[in-house]
């Protein structure tokens, strides 16, 4: 089953309704993002990946969320400006939405059902800190397959099949080979 078997729509950062069908035939990296997170630096590498591979059929789709310790408090205009000014983001960004719990957008319910949580990369320098924060403030986040933190990434092939889930503690450079293999 592919992401394109569903009729997923979401508002983009400019409040235009977009369909994921628009990205059919491309390799897609879906990322839940935040502007005030310890992983926000990943915007820079996401933009580099997008710039490097967009002409080969690759796209990054950013989905801001304020689920994790209020690390995305701004409105869509603030988020858009932050991303453009600080990281030169030109890849498609969507309106702030919910990525977990009862209000989760159906897209993220689908992604997490297809690719369950398998743990954090504990060799990443901030893994222990992230796990400590989650265990202290949001222990229920560690149960189930839902999104655990900002900058969880899902890699889809050109047919919309979800092939990989990468947690926040997986740096962008570590998934580039997976993207290249699909291009």
Please give a structural write-up.
- 28% of the residues lie in helices and 16% in strands.
- It has 183 residues and is α+β, with helices and mostly antiparallel strands.
- It is globular and about 40 Å long.
- The protein has a four-stranded mixed β-sheet with strand order 4-3-5-6, sandwiched between helices.
Could you say what the CATH topology is called?
A: Glutaredoxin
Helix content: 25-40%
Give the termini separation. Answer: 20 Å
Counted by DSSP, the helix tally is 5
| Full CATH superfamily name | Glutaredoxin
GO molecular function: peroxidase activity
Keywords: Oxidoreductase, Peroxidase
Family: Belongs to the glutathione peroxidase family.
InterPro entries: Glutathione_peroxidase (IPR000889), GPX_AS (IPR029759), Thioredoxin-like_sf (IPR036249), Thioredoxin_domain (IPR013766)
Please sum up the structure shown.
By secondary structure, this protein is of the alpha+beta class.
Task: Detail the topology: elements first, then pairings.
Layout: E1 9-11, E2 17-19, E3 27-33, H1 42-53, E4 58-64, H2 76-87, H3 106-114, H4 127-137, E5 153-156, E6 162-166, H5 176-182
Main attributes?
183 residues; Glutaredoxin; 6 strands; globular
């Amino acid at each position: 089953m592919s992401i394109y078997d569903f009729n997923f729509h979401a508002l983009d950062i400019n409040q235009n309704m977009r369909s994921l069908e628009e990205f059919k035939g491309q390799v897609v990296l879906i990322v839940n993002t935040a502007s005030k997170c310890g992983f926000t630096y990943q915007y820079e590498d996401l933009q580099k990946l997008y710039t490097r591979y967009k002409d080969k059929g690759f796209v990054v789709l950013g989905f801001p969320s304020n689920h994790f310790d209020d690390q995305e408090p701004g409105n869509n205009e603030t988020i858009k400006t932050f991303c453009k000014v600080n990281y030169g983001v030109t890849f498609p960004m969507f309106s702030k939405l919910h990525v977990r719990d009862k209000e989760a957008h159906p897209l993220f319910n689908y992604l997490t059902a297809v690719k369950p949580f398998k743990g954090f990369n504990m060799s990443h320098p901030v893994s222990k800190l992230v796990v400590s924060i989650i265990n202290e403030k949001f222990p229920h986040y560690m149960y189930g397959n839902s999104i655990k933190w900002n900058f969880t990434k899902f890699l889809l092939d050109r047919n919309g099949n979800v092939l990989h889930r990468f947690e926040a503690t997986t740096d962008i450079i570590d998934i580039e080979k997976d993207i290249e293999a699909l291009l």
